[in-house]
Amino acid sequence: MTAPVWSGPPRSGHRRGPAPAWRVPFGPVDEVSRHWLRESEPETVHIEVHLPGRPDPARLRHAFAEALRRHPRVLMREAPRRWYQRRYEWDVTRAPDTDPVHFPSAGADALMLARNRALTHCPPLSASPPLRLEVVDPGLDAEGCVLVLTLHHTALDAPSGLRLLATTAEVYGGVRDEPLARPRPTGGRYRSEAAPRAPRGRPARLAAVATGRDRGPGRVADGLALAELPVPARSPRAPDGTAAHSINDQLLVAASVMVTRWNRLHDGVGQPVWLNMPVDDRPHGPLMPMGNGTRMLRVPVSPQEPADTQLLAADEPDPDAVTRLLRQTALRTRALKAAPAGPPLGRGAALLTLPVLPVGARRAAARTVREAGAKRASTMLVSNLGRVPYRLDFADAGTARAVYFSAPARRPTGVSLTVTGTGDRLHVALRWSRALFDDHAGASLSDLFARSLAATSWRDPVPHRSGA
Asked: Do domains 22-173 and 222-388+407-454 have the same CATH topology?
């Protein structure tokens, strides 16, 4: 988190909105996202909180305004700049430039329309705060409501959005929402072994299936499918208490199996699967640093034995091959997490964001590097926030019964898989670029992930019985 930097009052004739309280330089993640912005690929993070009741509008507006006041780093807009400046900067404002809370008309299609807006209409960076909260009433025939929070990902990420909603719930209900303790790996919790070598070869791409019917004028750039799935069973712990793998490892393996099976069905090339996995090390309490605070790890999730690839691609993946891939993936993720934390997006991005040239020149260089490295980009993004660390209790509107979020589906990968957990259920969102998949293909891909995740569940081995 970059410390606030006061850079003096704006130059005359170079002001947009009220004078800022202070100014903060963009971090590397913010700058890379800003470089890669495209009108055709809205850079939004969408969060849904499903409540059993409906909050009072005036009370909710007050609670959200107070949450913004308690997290002033969210109240920001992109600062105007001269062509020769070497940094993008945020103007942190004392109050919102616009009202971020909206109550769209109720109706059976209200939630679908709100989701479409979340995937299409990116909150502008020119107004503070760069987010939008919609309170969606599904109509008289449906119970409860859905809070749809849309964030501009250049400014904020999903953990920041959830923290903002948790503070809103605290103010609305008058009860402090202490975050659940985050489990952290310790020396004796997992088995310690050397990680297997990463597979060679260009990363796999999901075979595109797009008819063009979903990409006409007025259609959203991304498609979205939501699913509520049971938490897959894990193998029992060893007598010394160590675990063979985590639920996160099972999600990664399920995504890899999904890619392998999808490409077999659609004549895709069988290349190794590499997954981008965000890691968030921030505390989740009321003083959580807001912004883009995750770092990206690149995880190879492919079997070492070539024969296992065919076993995993079968209609019913071979259980032994799945178990071997789970073990290999667990070793790889532990090794990556245990390594010293480097730059959030790697050393290449750190070099591209060094303020040695004007931002316009660095933007051109970043886009050139992105295009040149497209063939080496990871297969897809898998982001697991784990169990939601807040109760999200909105008093008379009830406690959240489901929380979904989705991340941008940037090309060349064009697919993101995001997961949260509540109780014994996983809330999964698959988001895809409609340049690669039509809605029918996206729904089929989501169903394939559900089946692939079920294939990672631990099964009690059948005991061998000798003949009479």
From this structure: yes
Task: Please give the order of strands across the beta sheet that includes 425-433.
Answer: 222-230, 425-433, 415-422, 380-387, 274-280, 294-300
- 397 CB-side CA count, 13 A: 27
What SS3 class is residue 416?
strand
Strand 131-136 vs strand 145-152: parallel, antiparallel, or unpaired? antiparallel
**Which tens digit of pLDDT belongs to each residue from 337-383?**
888 877 778 777 888 788 888 998 998 988 888 888 888 899 999 99
Note the pTM of the prediction, 2 decimals.
0.90
As a whole number of angstroms, the distance between CA 322 and CA 411 comes to 29
The residue among 217, 188, 311, 178 whose CA lies nearest residue 256 is 311
Is the domain 222-388+407-454 a CATH 3.90.25.10 member? no
- Give the integer Cα–Cα distance in Å for 266 and 90: 45
Residues belonging to the chain? 468
C-alpha span between 443 and 107 (Å, rounded): 24
CA dist 249 and 275 (Å) reads 11
- Residue 85, both tokens: 């400046």
- Report the run of H or E that residue 45 belongs to, with start and end: strand 44-51
- Strands (DSSP E) along 407-457, which ranges? 415-422, 425-433
What residues contact 192, with CB distance under 8 A and at least 6 apart? Answer: 334
Domain borders along the chain are: 22-173, 222-388+407-454
Q: Which parts of 137-208 are beta strand (E)?
A: 145-152
130, two tokens: 């760069």
pLDDT in tens, 217-270: 556 689 999 999 999 988 887 776 677 889 999 999 999 999 999 999 997 667
Determine the residue type at 120.
Answer: T
Residues facing residue 314 across a β-bridge = none
* 22-173: CATH superfamily: Chloramphenicol acetyltransferase-like domain (3.30.559.10)
Can you point out the beta strands (E) in 107-211?
A: 131-136, 145-152
Query: Do the Cβ atoms of 402 and 145 come closer than 8 Å?
Result: no
Say if residues 273 and 204 touch (Cβ distance below 8 Å): yes
Phi/psi at 374 (5° precision): -60, -35
